[in-house]
Amino acid sequence: FGLSKIRNFSIIAHIDHGKSTLSDALLVRLGNITAAQRRDQAQQLDTLKVERERGITVKAQTASMLYQGEYLLNLIDTPGHVDFSYEVVRSLSSCQGALLLVDATQGVQAQTLTTFRAAQEAGIKVLPVVTKIDLPNAQVEDTIFSMAATFDLDPEHVLATSAKTGQGIDAVLETIVKHVPPPPSEWDAAAPLRARVLDSWYDPLRGVVCLVQCVDGVLAEGDRISTCHLMSGAAAAGAGQGGGDTTFSVQEVGLLTPAPVRTRSLWSGQVGYMIGGIKSVRQVLLGDTVIRAGTRKGASDEAPPPPLPLFAPCRPNLFASCFPLDGDDFATLLTAVERLALNDASLQVHRENSTMLGHGLRVGFLGLLHMEVFKQRLDDEFNMAVLVTAPNVPYIFRDRDTGAEVEIENLADWPEEKRRGVTQVLEPMVEATVITPEDCLGSMLTLLQDKRGTELDTKFIDGERVLLVYKLPWQEVVTDLHDKAKSISSGYASLTYRPIDPEPADLVLCEMAINTEVVGALSFVSHRSSVMRLGRDLAARLKKVIPRQQFEVVIQARLGAKPFARERIPPYRKDVLIKSGKTVGGGDPSRKRKLLDKQKEGKRRAKTVGKVQLPQSAFWALLSKD
Ligand code: GTP
């Protein structure tokens, strides 16, 4: 395939607007999968167990398709939830076009706006599509007009499809070939090899598998390769390359359809997989440039080609600690998390030691859903049961005298009250975009004000809906703003956000103590005005979720070592074989075994802090909804 016959495109949309279903419809139409396969396995491109269970896309996936025997179309399916927006940005930077999908029954939503903006920032061609037009409540005309008005488009250019009936799918394919530009003409099959690592994952049988986009040259089986990347910082100075000390021999390359099809070589413009005997997850990083080995250090007179530009770095919005539930499983946890991090460029991991919880990891996430998915993937894919503490946002401490700033990822580093005179605390802020039906505008405004929001913009986007742009503390958004906005609007409002500069705020640390010992992992930071309410609330919630122990448990919320809320859990002799004074199970040994096993499983799912068994729900009590 010459470059002029290649099209790289993505599908972007608000969550649940039908990206994965449309991708599947394209795959069926071009014969990559059969209609029966499609029925058997809902959503071919959602391969992770967590994706199928939750019906969401977490990882961007790729499929190459042959169109009319002459075009190679590379589709990158992207996640819709804002927590996975880093995957979207990364996907867009390797494409020249994107289908912007809008559900005809839902209209333009908050994430439609942000993904459109991301595509514009990436400078790629946007093709607007209305989908689900087969549904009886589809409002096709209205949706087309509001898309045209919101994105300043010609309504004639909006395509209408149904991924269920196949209507309009051919027009989508024709438009992609006609309007998505081919890869840049500077890409050169005759130049020295440069391929970019777009993604990688761990296959138990084959080791590390990389998804690569070949920019220049040809990547062929048998080639000896190494990787390099621009070092951040050095990149600005135009110098410095990192990585690349190890060389690999390429064992297999091919296209993903999405099933792997071995092709033995990948040419400039193609996107495919590469297996190269890479053993350690640290040897290849996302965004690395693959080059031919020997060209980098210039042993010969040939100068190495410069590495391809880096992806923008990803900054975590949330930090939580993660501990193995079986005390000495730390090494297993470390390996599992490293493998997950290989497949998830937005995770950031450091080691941590807690006096109460033992060896663990401090992990940076993009949001709460990202954190929950991380926990579930460890369980599903690595059989690793972990405890994840309540997350906190990263605060910034500014020295009032020198102006020096440090980012605090862990509340254990919170300054004592007496140091407050010299340290100013800044909290992370976001610009949130909310689209809400007009009839619940009043309650939505109250909610945003309760969350310490400041209005930036308000306008009608169609006859019945209002677009609100608010500046809010990220901490207020992360806990429950999304759920509250949904419940106020019976599910009709949508919300998204992007980080903006942090701002000073009057924040305090509320410590939670159990039997007089402060448990750092339960403590939290809040605005001074709401700390008493939240502390009392948390103590009451903990009382509900901590099981009775064989001794009394006293929960306290404290401010500067002074308790202001107290709850008590009375002792209980937890002998599972005795109920209301009678021995259960009678003489039946299998029933007795079952009860004891159940008790053991309960213990396996809890963590002992001091002497008290705390279940996962205790650590997430601060987040739990009313
Ligand atoms: P995320 O990746 O989680 O953001 O979701 P998505 O955008 O990939 O949406 P998905 O393809 O999972 O579709 C969401 C729901 O809409 C599913 O129940 C689909 O069956 C349904 N759906 C998608 N496209 C159509 C369509 O054209 N017609 C009808 N009737 N239903 C559709």
TrEMBL record:
<comment type="similarity">
    <text>Belongs to the TRAFAC class translation factor GTPase superfamily. Classic translation factor GTPase family. LepA subfamily.</text>
</comment>
<dbReference type="InterPro" id="IPR000795">
    <property type="entry name" value="T_Tr_GTP-bd_dom"/>
</dbReference>
<dbReference type="Pfam" id="PF00679">
    <property type="entry name" value="EFG_C"/>
</dbReference>
<dbReference type="InterPro" id="IPR035654">
    <property type="entry name" value="LepA_IV"/>
</dbReference>
<feature type="domain" description="Tr-type G">
    <location>
        <begin position="4"/>
        <end position="184"/>
    </location>
</feature>
<feature type="binding site">
    <location>
        <begin position="77"/>
        <end position="81"/>
    </location>
    <ligand>
        <name>GTP</name>
    </ligand>
</feature>
<comment type="similarity">
    <text>Belongs to the GTP-binding elongation factor family. LepA subfamily.</text>
</comment>
<dbReference type="InterPro" id="IPR000640">
    <property type="entry name" value="EFG_V-like"/>
</dbReference>
<comment type="function">
    <text>Promotes mitochondrial protein synthesis. May act as a fidelity factor of the translation reaction, by catalyzing a one-codon backward translocation of tRNAs on improperly translocated ribosomes. Binds to mitochondrial ribosomes in a GTP-dependent manner.</text>
</comment>
<keyword id="KW-0472">Membrane</keyword>
<dbReference type="InterPro" id="IPR035647">
    <property type="entry name" value="EFG_III/V"/>
</dbReference>
<dbReference type="GO" id="GO:0005759">
    <property type="term" value="C:mitochondrial matrix"/>
</dbReference>
<dbReference type="GO" id="GO:0045727">
    <property type="term" value="P:positive regulation of translation"/>
</dbReference>
<dbReference type="InterPro" id="IPR031157">
    <property type="entry name" value="G_TR_CS"/>
</dbReference>
<dbReference type="GO" id="GO:0005525">
    <property type="term" value="F:GTP binding"/>
</dbReference>
<keyword id="KW-0547">Nucleotide-binding</keyword>
<dbReference type="InterPro" id="IPR009000">
    <property type="entry name" value="Transl_B-barrel_sf"/>
</dbReference>
<keyword id="KW-0378">Hydrolase</keyword>
<dbReference type="InterPro" id="IPR013842">
    <property type="entry name" value="LepA_CTD"/>
</dbReference>
<feature type="region of interest" description="Disordered">
    <location>
        <begin position="580"/>
        <end position="610"/>
    </location>
</feature>
<dbReference type="GO" id="GO:0003746">
    <property type="term" value="F:translation elongation factor activity"/>
</dbReference>
<feature type="compositionally biased region" description="Basic residues">
    <location>
        <begin position="591"/>
        <end position="608"/>
    </location>
</feature>
<dbReference type="InterPro" id="IPR005225">
    <property type="entry name" value="Small_GTP-bd"/>
</dbReference>
<dbReference type="InterPro" id="IPR038363">
    <property type="entry name" value="LepA_C_sf"/>
</dbReference>
<dbReference type="InterPro" id="IPR006297">
    <property type="entry name" value="EF-4"/>
</dbReference>
<dbReference type="Pfam" id="PF00009">
    <property type="entry name" value="GTP_EFTU"/>
</dbReference>
<feature type="binding site">
    <location>
        <begin position="13"/>
        <end position="20"/>
    </location>
    <ligand>
        <name>GTP</name>
    </ligand>
</feature>
<dbReference type="GO" id="GO:0009507">
    <property type="term" value="C:chloroplast"/>
</dbReference>
<dbReference type="InterPro" id="IPR027417">
    <property type="entry name" value="P-loop_NTPase"/>
</dbReference>
<keyword id="KW-0999">Mitochondrion inner membrane</keyword>
<feature type="binding site">
    <location>
        <begin position="131"/>
        <end position="134"/>
    </location>
    <ligand>
        <name>GTP</name>
    </ligand>
</feature>
<keyword id="KW-0648">Protein biosynthesis</keyword>
<dbReference type="GO" id="GO:0005743">
    <property type="term" value="C:mitochondrial inner membrane"/>
</dbReference>
<keyword id="KW-0342">GTP-binding</keyword>
<dbReference type="GO" id="GO:0097177">
    <property type="term" value="F:mitochondrial ribosome binding"/>
</dbReference>
<protein>
    <recommendedName>
        <fullName>Translation factor GUF1 homolog, mitochondrial</fullName>
        <ecNumber>3.6.5.n1</ecNumber>
    </recommendedName>
</protein>
<keyword id="KW-0251">Elongation factor</keyword>
<keyword id="KW-0496">Mitochondrion</keyword>
<dbReference type="GO" id="GO:0003924">
    <property type="term" value="F:GTPase activity"/>
</dbReference>
<dbReference type="Pfam" id="PF06421">
    <property type="entry name" value="LepA_C"/>
</dbReference>
